[in-house]
Write a structure and sequence with these properties.
Distance between the termini: 61 Å
Number of helices: 17
Largest sheet: 9 strands, mixed
CATH architecture of the largest domain: 3-Layer(aba) Sandwich
Strand order of the largest sheet: 3-2-1-4-5-7-6-8-9
CATH topology of the largest domain: Rossmann fold
Helix content: 40-55%
Order of helices and strands: HHHHHHHHEHHEHEEHEHHEEEHEHH
Structural class: alpha/beta
Strand content: 5-15%
Number of domains: 3
Radius of gyration: 26 Å
Shape: globular
CATH class of the largest domain: Alpha Beta
Length: about 475
Amino acid sequence: MSVRTLVKSIQDIMRKDSGVDGDAQRISQLCWLFFLKIIDDQDQELELMRAGYQSPVPEKFQWRTWAADPEGLTGEDLLAFVNEELFPAMKGLQPTGQKGDRRVVVRDVFEDAFNYMKSGQLLRQVVNKINEVDFNDLSERQHFGDVYEQLLNDLQSAGNSGEYYTPRAVTAFMVDRIDPKPGEVLFDPACGTGGFLTCSIRHMRDKHVKRPEDEALMQSGLRAVEKKPLPHMLCVTNMLLHGVEDASFVRHDNTLARPYISWEQKDRVDVVLSNPPFGGKEEDGIESNFPPQYRTRETADLFLALIIRLLRKGGVGAVVLPDGSLFGEGVKTRLKEHLLEECNLHTIVRLPNSVFRPYASIGTNLLFFEKGEPTKEVWYYEHQVPAGQKAYSMTKPIRLEHFQSCMDWWGGANREGRVEGPQAWKISIEDIKARGYNLDIKNPHSEAVDHGKPEELLRKLDAAETEAANLRDQLKAILAEALAR
């Protein structure tokens, strides 16, 4: 049985349980179960490799102890064990205070976790299915990684929980352009389920990790924060799945809750890759953590202000922002002025509205900048939906190869030899200032759509409205006749 088929069979079992309601609960349930299996498989490998290694999970609650035997605990006994013993023990784990203490990771994952299943028999069936995956088998782990990302994508039907999923092609493109390396401190202040982190890990392993020391250096440079419990749990599990031994760097917290001024020089980072939540409002009082000129309840604006502060001189950032951040006034104008003065905003890649469907049909932009020198000019590149396709969708999502023309135009690490063309143009800082820092600059090379003469359009509109009125009258007559019978 393939890993994908196995995961689908687990979801089918959960659908039979009256306690699991909807995709969000199903994925949350899957997550803590997978987490315990993954960390136990990882522990067994570390026990063989390291003398004196001790699992962060007490022996009684390790997966191998209570879950590995297919004929083990089931029914009411299993439910009682999970609800009355396992969960309290995991939530109550006391950290040792030592560096790299994995107890912190376990406790944080279970902090807001919950066992939704009410049938001990169905829970045993799920556990037995999970036992079929060996997370120490590299091929199975890689296959499961793809399935896991699909699970994250499935959150689209879980209400607003889907807001933190960024298409993998977008994260991969941004990481490829930034090219993070071991030894650099990489930070995602609103990491969601860890898309930028996993893409960065893959990128560095493919291009820069040559020795065990490089791997250790890479892992030690990762930083992340996630506010919501479910994506935090998913992110930590995702890190373990990608071979990260200590995932305690993924903090369950609100980055914006810390006062802006308290981020000191020692907190500076080399790389920021992030898709800050936009369209939402922060809780009352959060904006007071920021200087008066940047105070707003718009989350994306607060994150942009913080990201500019957090980058060290020479640090690089790539951030997803909505169109509103480019043309907005007030605080948004002051933020853009600050960004252009503190950083070289060298490239803006404009994405079509359909990239983030089904979560939102909104124009988004990828901003690439380096801190330390002011902006002299900004290059724009308009990403277009492939020929023969009207828009991106669930069945035809954006893929990394769709960015190839932009990569070819980019000009390498030093961005040399860029030329204007049908999809590329540039604007000077003087022109940007003259526009009142409005960065919402349309493609000057695109032809205006000819909608026809105004009088002809009005005539067609009048005809359509008359036809609609006639149809309404006919429908009313039909309904009246039907009621009179």
